[in-house]
Structures are given as C-alpha cells and as structure tokens.
Amino acid sequence: MALERSEVEKIAHLARLGLNEGDIPRTTETLNNILGLIDQMQAVDTSGIEPLAHPLEATQRLRADAVTEENRRAAYQAIAPAVENGLYLVPKVIE
Amino acid sequence: MQWETVIGLEIHAQLSTQSKIFSASAIAFGAEPNTQASLIDLGMPGTLPVLNAEAVRMACKFGLAIDAEIAGKNIFARKNYFYPDLPKGYQTSQMDDPIVGKGFLDITLEDGSQKRIGITRAHLEEDAGKSLHEDFHGMSGIDLNRAGTPLLEIVSEPDIRSAKEAVAYVKAIHALVRYLGICDGNMAEGSLRCDCNVSVRPVGQAEYGTRAEIKNVNSFRFIEKAINHEVQRQIELIEDGGKVVQETRLYDPNKDQTRSMRSKEEANDYRYFPCPDLLPVIIEQSFLDEVRASLPELPVQKRARFEAEFGLSAYDADVLASSRELADYFEAVNSVCGDAKLAANWVMGELSSLLNKDNLEIQQSPVSAAQLGGMIQRIKDNTISGKIAKMVFEALATGEGATADEVIEKKGLKQVTDSGAIEKMLDEVLAANAEQVEQYRASDEAKRGKMFGFFVGQAMRASKGKANPGQVNELLKKKLEG
Amino acid sequence: MHQLNLAEIARGLADKQFSSEELTRSLLARIQQLDPQLNSFITVTEELALAQAKAADARRSAGENAPLLGAPIAHKDLFCTEGVLTSCGSKILSGFKAPYNATVVEKLAAAGTVTLGKLNMDEFAMGSANESSHYGPVKNPWDLTRVPGGSSGGSAAAVAARLLPAATGTDTGGSIRQPAALTNLTGIKPTYGRVSRWGMIAYASSLDQGGPLARTAEDCALMLQAMAGFDAKDSTSVEQPVDDYLAALTQPLKGMRIGLPKEYFGAGLDARIADATLAVVEELKKLGATVKDISLPNMQHAIPAYYVIAPAEASSNLSRFDGVRFGYRCENPANLEDLYKRSRGEGFGAEVKRRIMVGTYALSAGYYDAYYLKAQKIRRLIKNDFVSAFNEVDVILGPTTPNLAWKLGEKSDDPVAAYLEDIYTITANLAGIPGLSMPAGFVDGLPVGVQLLAPYFQEGRLLNVAHQYQQVTDWHTRAPAGF
C-alpha cells in the first residue's frame, strides 16, 4: 500500500516536521520504498507469538521517594533559546 | 420528551508524594517558576525516568480501597503530542495495562440512600507543566515545576445520572483519597481535577447519546453548575433538531456556560506505545498484603460503625465520616464526654456553623475536641444548661478560657441547683409580680399554661440563666399552686 | 607514541616512560595536523584534556595506579559532557552545551581517562556511513574516498588513524561493529543493560547500547571494564556485577563451540568477505575450538522489524527537540505550530526526518498492530532463534558486514540499500545479546571484519575469543598508510 502525498503531509504534521514543498514528491517516494521493505514482515507467521518490548524481559526497579534535586534553573536556562523571569518563552498558546 | 442524563467522570488526583513520579524533584505548590524542574522534568536529551515507589504504593492503596483488582503486571506507555507544557513531546501514562482495574465506590445520595458507582480503572501518569498567558511581548511563558507530578487518573463508569450524583461521587472520591493520605484534595490548587463526560438520551433508550467532555472543572459547585448547564445545552440542541458533537468543552464559571475548545478539536492521534525507557511494573501479592494491612478505616466502614456503635442516624454518621479529620474530631469529643449523640449534635451544630462562618477547616478549629468534650461533660452533670453551654462555647472559641470549667468559674455560670437558693429567688420574683400571680391563680388551666412561661422567663432572667431549669419549673409550679 | 595501543599506553604510563601530559600534547598536535582529512572530531577539548592529563599525572605521582589513569580517549558526540557541545551530529542541538555528564563519561573520567574531544557521527546515530552528520561526512583513513561506516564513524576513523587509542561509541543496529569492521578495529556492543544509557542521547531506547572501539580486544576489555556497571539512573540497567574482562582474555579456546549460521553466508555477501571469515574459523580451530553449522531462520526478517521498532521509538524520543528549552530554534516563528515545524524541519537532516516519519506512521491509529506489534513479535522470534542456537554453541561467528567500505555518496540517495548493510548486526540489538567485531584481513586494501555473538552477559567470552585470535594474527596491528 503506497502513501499518497496527503498522507505524507498528515504524518509530517503529526510529527511537526516542516517539509519544503519541493521535497514532498521525493520524500513520498523514499517513504514508499522504506514501507515496501517493512511490508515484507507481513509474510511472517507470528500467530501465538507474544510481542517482545525489551530484550531482557526484566522488571521495573522502584526509586525511594526522596527529593535530592536542587534548583539549577540558571544553569539549565543558560542554554535555552528564550527565557524571561524564569519562564521559557514560546509564541502565544491559544486555548 | 423526558431526558435521562448519563455522566462518567475522570478525576485526576495529584499524589502527595515527596518527589515527582520519575525524578527526584520536589512538588511543592507555588515555588518560583522552573525551580523544581530537573533535567528529567525538562526533558533534557539523554535523561531517563525511574519510577517512584511511593506513587505505586499509593495507587495500590486506592485500588484496594475500591475493591479493585490490582494488575500483577502494569505497563507505562507514551502518549505522543506536541504542547509547550509537555517537555518530552509525550506524556508517560498507562494505556492497555493500568495499575488499578475495575472497582466501585458506594456514595450516599441526599435522601440518605446509597448508590454504587463503578470505577473502570485508575492509572498512574505524569502531570504537565503550565502555560502562563500574561503578556510577555505577545509570548506565553512556560513553567515546568508541575511537570512530572504524579497523578492517579480515576475513570468512572457512566453510572452517574445527575449533577448532584456527580458531586456526591466526587465528594466521596475526595474523602477517600484524603482518608488514604494519597492526595491533599486541594481543588483550588488543582490537586484534584475533574473532567466530566456528559450525554443525554430519551428515557428508556438503551444506547448512550453522543457525549461532550468538559475539561478541568475545579470545584464541587462548578461541577454541578457545569453539568447542569451542559445537560440543558444538549437537550435544547437536540430538541431544536440539532446534534451533539463529540468534543472537548471548557466551563467558564464567570459566564456559567461551557464552550468548545476548538484548538484541541483537530483529530488527535496519540500514537500510544509501551515506554521503552521503563520496564513492566510487577506488584507482588506480599506487597499488596502489606499495603492492605496499612489501610486506615475507610469512610464506608466508619459510617457503619458510627451507626452501630453510637446509634447515630444514617445522616449524622455520613456527615461525620465525610472527612477523616472531622470523624477523628468527633471521636475525640466523644471519648472525653462519653455521649455520642450530644457530641454529634455539638460537632454538626454549633461547631460547624462556627467553622463555616470563619471559613475554617476542622483542623483549624479554635475549640479543641478536648475543650468541647469537657464542656459537654458539664452539660451532662448539670453544671450548666444547654443554653449556658452556648455561651461557654463562644467563650472557648474566643479564647476566654482554656477549659469549660475555667470559663464557668470565671464567668460564674455555674448552674444553681440548691433548692433553698432557688426558692428564695422565686419568692422574690413572685413578690415583684404579685398582680400576675393573682391573675394566674384566677385563671383556668388553659390560660395558666401560657402565663406559667412568663414566670419561668422572669425566674431565669433573675438567675441570669444559671438556675437549673428543671428545678425552677418544679418549684415554681408548687409555689403558684400553693 | 601514537602507534601505541591502549594497553601499551597504560604500561608506558605505569612505567613512567612518558607522562599523560606529553602523550596528550602529542595526540592533540596529531589531531590538529591530520583530522582535517578525516573530519572525525566535532569538538576538540584541548583545555579540558590538558587539565585532566595534568591531574592524572599528579594522581600517578601520588601513587595511584589505575589502568586507564592518564589514557587519552574521546566520546561519540551523543554522550553528554557538561559544558561541552553535545551535538548528536545535528543542527538541532546547535549550541547545546550539555548541563550534565553521561554516566559513561563520569565513569571513564573517574577511571582517570583524558578526554580529547567529541567525535563525529551520523545524525542521531541514524546511518551506517557517517554521511548524515550536520558537521559533514567522516572519511575512512584506509581510503579517503570511502565511508568509515556509521553511526560511530568519527570514533572509528579517529582510532584507526591513530589520533587516539580508544573511543566510546554506541550501537543500535551495528553502529559500533560495522564501522569497526570497515576501519580494521575491534569494537564491542555489550548486552543491553550492561552499560548505562543515562546521558547517552537516545535513538531507539530498547536497542541502544554504549561500548568501546579500539585496536585490540584487550583495549576493549580495558575500556568496557570502566564503562560497564549498574546505574540506578537507568531503569533498564541491569543490577549484576561486572565480570573481570581482562582475566577472561587469557582463557584457552580449547573446546569452545563456534556456530556458523548458514543465513550469514547466503546471497548478498561479498565472496571475498566470506573467504576471510572462513579463514578466521580455521585459525580458531587451530586454537582448539570446534565448529558447528547452525541456523537462525528468522534473521532475514530482522531488517523490516528493526526499521519499524527503531524509527517508532525514535519518532517519540526525538519529540523533545522542539526549539523551546534548548538547541536550535527557527528565526521569528509566526506562531506555536510554526515554531515546532520550522525548528524541527530546519534542525533535522533528511535521514532523521525520514525515520521520524516512518516511526510516526508505524505508531499511528490503524497501523499499530500491523507494524509495531508485528515487529515486536518478530523480535521475539529472533530472540528465540538465539536462545536455541546458544543451547548448541558458545559463540556465533559470521561476517560483520556484507560489503567492504563503499564510496562516499554511493548509497546516500538510496536509504533502503544502506539499510541492507545492517543485515548481520541488527539481530544482536533486537535480541539484546552482546556482539563484537574484530579485524579479519583485507580485500583490495580495505579491512574486513568478523563478528562474534554470545549469550547475555558473555562479553568476557567474546573478548576472550578475539584476544586469542589476535595473539596468533596481526591484522589488528596494521595501520592505514599515511597514519
């Protein structure tokens, strides 16, 4: 099943990736080549097989509930693109 | 047409852990922006989450309290979407395998009857930060202090049929999480937030109508108003030939209306998948046994015990058990005075109107349980009358004495029970009202009743309320008949 | 001095034949002189290196004698280094001076190593040619017109060119082993969970694993000994003691059962690489190993499964690069959506965008079961293959890559062709088992690598086999002409 241009645009939007208008045909073609490779999976019989999310199948360790972090705002915000009064600035969020 | 309202609620309870769910940052309310946002909370590249044990324990406590099945293995998943208050571009939550499965909660309705509300699931997740919209040169400011605060999202079945039931349910959840000590329940600070899924259907119809979700309603009063408003809106819409659309709406308490959140309407595709940075959480039976053993007496159990042990009415028991602090206060008063009914009356009467008047919580009560209990003892042993007790209570509230006894002593409020003294006082009253005595004696039974009250009043005034009313009645009758 | 390998440097420093400062100055000069041909460094941390070297010399004078004390190394540029640009080879991390150190960086610093700088890599570790870096492609010192492999291409080129004795790398689908093979190095990808991922900027969290590239198995053992270990900051880190890798090196190979999977010798493999691989087998037989033909029947499905799982995880892992809290932000965003789309659109390169889009698609509503879940099931089949195979053999051996190092630009327009180069390496990542690549000869003057795979936590066994082989061969000692 090949992706249409509109689907590529939708995926790019979901992933918040700006694509150049001129790149879309090429991107669509490459993605379809990759999906062609991936679709080879569909021929594999996986009935009755449990999905494997982590190779070791270990279980989650729990952390004791204690505050050990200190305020390092100045250091963290020194590398931020835009801050004011300790806040990160972004174009207005409309609710 | 007759309409039936169908409501399901999603309640987000902020768990009162010390640190965040996946980082060791503090979660104190009201800190300077971004001072409680660590590398992990900021979604810095290369950082990884480690799960807070206490958040797991608290979720288990809740699950056990609602008789739910606790998943032996539960899994964290990522909910992917872009928003400036969501630093990683995904929220770590639980989807297919939540920690708490199906359970229920019994709520008490206004008429005192009980209703069982099903709880579909409860899962752990991280809170987002906050966007501040004050004008920063046309920009929004992002504070990530709240990002990563542990939340328990409690999802009810669509078992609720009115706004009042919804409020009763939220109050019951509120009481429960506070009993369990897993959430401070402070709705003004957003510790308990409620999303209401509301739909209507013609009475008798089996299928549900299309629902609208009202986001983030943050007080009991607003829950009731928002739902009532939304129900009305939907009924009017349908009756006018329109259709309810499935959407997210926002309640505006100032205008008392809900409005569509158009910006969130675009089809979201959250692309949930198991979080590869976290492993499955395994809950052992031995751990659950230990948590179960640590559970306090819950509201339902307490209510039943208050009825059985103290003979309180269902209504009184329900009110007193509605918060752990109130119940503890009541029990403390009772243990001092040994009269549960009097204790209940005073706690629910004078004390709660005093607290309401000054907008205080029971923990802030100016009159301690020991003080109130001590005062009730003095009512029981006839040291003071109920009327005088109100004066003593007020004096205790304003700090005019450390104990009821001290107030009684200082103000000379001790009830006079010496019959000689009362008789002497009555003789003076009768002498001063000789004319009325004449009239009384000349009147028939029917009239005498009313006139008798006059003499009691005069006598009590003369004694400044301190004469034992029973004795005054008895002796006065004797003397007038005399 | 630059021809010394890590173990030799350790001995030279211990015997006070030279100081760390002398060695460091000499390598810094060499980097300045030769790296312009290779482009293996993104950042050279000269001041930091000299300060660390002096500190190491002081510790040495005070009587300390840790094996890596004063040894110069460098880090792949996805390990966070406090106060130093950590770019992931991407424009989107422009100006990202990491505010903290990765655990691997901390551990190697604690072991006394001297950090010469940060090494070039495929953008976000996505690639097998090191051509997708924002900082330009890395050249293979064996032939400057060819790729060094990737994604740890900078690490491989720098160590192969004797700019330094060892470097860190990461391996999500072969990113340590494949460049090691193409540049005549030894490189090991440990068991998933053996090396902490804290501070190692994620590509695909359930596959990523850090490890060393060096010239010999012994050098890898020295490095891994310092890098490995439990870390409470990484939930997927394994709480298990680290084996003594140096002690494991000297075990005789007598009775070692080596499995040759028939699927590793099928169509697509350069016949000359197959010959070199079989020659290694003959050498190991002489050392007492026995050989058995085995099968890993699901190997062929690994590429499609990998190219679902890795992009899916990456699509989510890379959402945090949004121009808000760090890194690149587009000029004058018109609104929030514009901020996201242009920062990410301009900040990420073509291959990263492709993989984010593949992953986004694979996780999207209606496709999750057919793609992501299906791939996870195949992942289990692949793991099961290894579990069965390791019932019969101790180590699996095969070629690391199907082809020799290719010409720069040759596959950059055809991602699918480049993906197929990962065929022999990605199964170890999907299963989480350790894998090692070691030099196995040359074809047309280009290095050939052979890969060894072992059961979980048997890094010592891999290093043992490679070390024993390196005691009787000298491929690993060959240096590229001009370096």
UniProtKB/TrEMBL annotation, chain A:
Catalysed transformations (reactions): L-glutamyl-tRNA(Gln) + L-glutamine + ATP + H2O = L-glutaminyl-tRNA(Gln) + L-glutamate + ADP + phosphate + H(+); L-aspartyl-tRNA(Asn) + L-glutamine + ATP + H2O = L-asparaginyl-tRNA(Asn) + L-glutamate + ADP + phosphate + 2 H(+)
GO MF, one annotated term: transferase activity
Stated name of the protein: Aspartyl/glutamyl-tRNA(Asn/Gln) amidotransferase subunit C
PANTHER family: GLUTAMYL-TRNA(GLN) AMIDOTRANSFERASE SUBUNIT C, MITOCHONDRIAL
Gene3D superfamilies cross-referenced by the UniProt entry: Glu-tRNAGln amidotransferase C subunit, N-terminal domain
Name of a matching Pfam family: GatC
Keyword Cell membrane: no
From TrEMBL, chain B:
Catalytic activity annotation: L-glutamyl-tRNA(Gln) + L-glutamine + ATP + H2O = L-glutaminyl-tRNA(Gln) + L-glutamate + ADP + phosphate + H(+); L-aspartyl-tRNA(Asn) + L-glutamine + ATP + H2O = L-asparaginyl-tRNA(Asn) + L-glutamate + ADP + phosphate + 2 H(+)
Domain Asn/Gln amidotransferase: 328-480
GO MF annotation, one: glutaminyl-tRNA synthase (glutamine-hydrolyzing) activity
Domain of life assignment: Bacteria
SMART domains per the UniProt record, alphabetical: GatB_Yqey
InterPro entries (UniProt xref): Asn/Gln-tRNA_amidoTrfase_suB/E, Asn/Gln-tRNA_Trfase_suB/E_cat, Asn/Gln_amidotransferase, Asn/Gln_tRNA_amidoTrase-B-like, GatB, GatB_C_1, GatB_Yqey_C_2, Gln-tRNA_amidoTrfase_suB_CS
GO BP annotation list: glutaminyl-tRNAGln biosynthesis via transamidation; translation
EC number, UniProt record: 6.3.5.-
Keywords for this protein: ATP-binding, Ligase, Nucleotide-binding, Protein biosynthesis, Transferase
Record keyword Translocase present: no
Subunit details: Heterotrimer of A, B and C subunits.
NCBIfam families: gatB (TIGR00133), PRK05477.1-2 (NF004012), PRK05477.1-4 (NF004014), PRK05477.1-5 (NF004015)
The protein's role, per its UniProt record: Allows the formation of correctly charged Asn-tRNA(Asn) or Gln-tRNA(Gln) through the transamidation of misacylated Asp-tRNA(Asn) or Glu-tRNA(Gln) in organisms which lack either or both of asparaginyl-tRNA or glutaminyl-tRNA synthetases. The reaction takes place in the presence of glutamine and ATP through an activated phospho-Asp-tRNA(Asn) or phospho-Glu-tRNA(Gln).
PANTHER family: GLUTAMYL-TRNA GLN AMIDOTRANSFERASE SUBUNIT B MITOCHONDRIAL AND PROKARYOTIC PET112-RELATED (PTHR11659), GLUTAMYL-TRNA(GLN) AMIDOTRANSFERASE SUBUNIT B, MITOCHONDRIAL (PTHR11659:SF0)
Name the UniProt record assigns to this protein: Aspartyl/glutamyl-tRNA(Asn/Gln) amidotransferase subunit B
Species for this entry: Pseudomonas taeanensis MS-3
Lineage: Bacteria, Pseudomonadati, Pseudomonadota, Gammaproteobacteria, Pseudomonadales
GN (gene name): gatB
TrEMBL record, chain C:
Domain Amidase: 22-463
Ribosomal protein listed as a keyword: no
Top-level taxonomic group: Bacteria
Entry annotated with the keyword Protein biosynthesis: yes
EC number: 6.3.5.7
Keywords: ATP-binding, Ligase, Nucleotide-binding, Protein biosynthesis, Transferase
GO cellular component, one term: glutamyl-tRNA(Gln) amidotransferase complex
Quaternary structure and partners: Heterotrimer of A, B and C subunits.
Family, per entry: Belongs to the amidase family. GatA subfamily.
Function: Allows the formation of correctly charged Gln-tRNA(Gln) through the transamidation of misacylated Glu-tRNA(Gln) in organisms which lack glutaminyl-tRNA synthetase. The reaction takes place in the presence of glutamine and ATP through an activated gamma-phospho-Glu-tRNA(Gln).
Listed name of the protein: Glutamyl-tRNA(Gln) amidotransferase subunit A
Organism per entry: Pseudomonas taeanensis MS-3
Species classification: Bacteria, Pseudomonadati, Pseudomonadota, Gammaproteobacteria, Pseudomonadales
